[in-house]
Amino acid sequence: MHCVCPRLMIFAEVKKLCHLHNVPFHWYLTNQFCIAYDVYLKIQQCINTRIASALGRNTPHWQMRNSCPACYCCCDGKTPLRFSILCALDGNNLLKLVDQTFRCGCTQPDPRDARSNIWITEEEVNKFKNSVEDAR
């Protein structure tokens, strides 16, 4: 469900489930659905963590050490490109979350912890916030 539509609307999902089961909709069902879905995501994350651990993929820099070396290869004698690599996580829609120019509406803080070694914490990012300004 989450992989198919990352912008999951809880209200719509609960209404759909009520319709499929011929049950009248009540607002408390949205809260129950949120709780159940969060538990589902937590279970899925725990399973993925155990699988990664069993395969030895839980070291801090595993992704970087096992990335595609051809993607980072530089040829001698060639003029380097302006951008060495281009990455888009979600069809480039992530820019809407980063730059205020592209964002509409209010900021929605997400207090959840990613629990992955791919994503770093806000505290870890903030260690370098002054180094960017000092480099200019």
Q: Would you spell out the secondary-structure blueprint of this structure?
A:
Layout: H1 10-20, H2 28-54, H3 62-65, H4 95-98, H5 122-126, H6 129-135
What descriptors fit this protein?
CxC2-like cysteine cluster KDZ transposase-associated domain-containing protein, elongated, 6 helices
Describe the structure.
This protein has one domain. It is 43% helix and 0% strand. It is built from 6 helices and no strands.
Are there runs of 5+ residues with pLDDT below 50, and where? Answer: none
Note the total helix count.
6
Helix content range of the residues, please?
40-55%
Structural class: mainly alpha
Number of strands: 0
Instruction: Give the terminus-to-terminus CA distance.
Output: 44 Å
The geometry reads as elongated
User: What is the mean predicted local confidence, pLDDT?
Assistant: 77
Element order: H for helix, E for strand: HHHHHH
Cα-atom radius of gyration: 21 Å
Oligomer: single chain
Give a quick account of the main beta sheet: strands, pairing sense, barrel closure: none
Protein name: CxC2-like cysteine cluster KDZ transposase-associated domain-containing protein
Organism: Coniophora puteana (strain RWD-64-598)
